[in-house]
Amino acid sequence: QVQLVESGGGLVQPGGSLRLSCAASGSIFSINAMAWYRQAPGKQREWVARSFSGGRIIHTDSVKGRFTISRDNAKNMVYLQMNSLKPEDTAVYYCNAEIKTTYWATLIDYWGQGTQVTVSS
Question: What pLDDT does residue 1 have?
């Protein structure tokens, strides 16, 4: 009953910027961590950034200083601001969230359908 929907992907030139958004909806009791992953053709899905419930954020080394994850807990949304984009950032970007649907339920990972980001001249 929970769904995550990403938006904001598209085609940008190297050095450009893009902001991805992800909205969580449905039966949500609480959300712990939220994160972004990406997957390029022929490659494994790669963790990109994570936002912990306490406010701490971390990013994989390849995007540090360029990408910033943020969230709006009141809106159940997470964002990924991507600056200084490089061709190697090209991938399908997926939203991930650890969600409890009820007080009694365990924490479960939910995934969005992905949004394509293409960085090319």
Answer: 87
- For residue 106, pLDDT beyond 90: yes
Q: What is the DSSP letter of 56?
A: -
Pair 65, 82: CB distance under 8 Å: no
| pLDDT band of 14, cuts 50, 70, 90 | very high
- pLDDT surpasses 90 at 63: yes
Question: Which value, to the nearest 10 degrees, does the dihedral of the CA atoms of residues 41, 46, 48, 50 take?
Answer: 140
pLDDT of 30 higher than 90: yes
Cβ-contact 12, 118 below 8 angstroms: yes
How far, in Å, CA of 40 to CA of 9, rounded? 14
* 47: its two tokens: 């963790």
The sign one gets for the Cα dihedral 27, 22, 41, 59 is: negative
**Bridge-based pairing state of the strands 77-82 and 67-72:** antiparallel
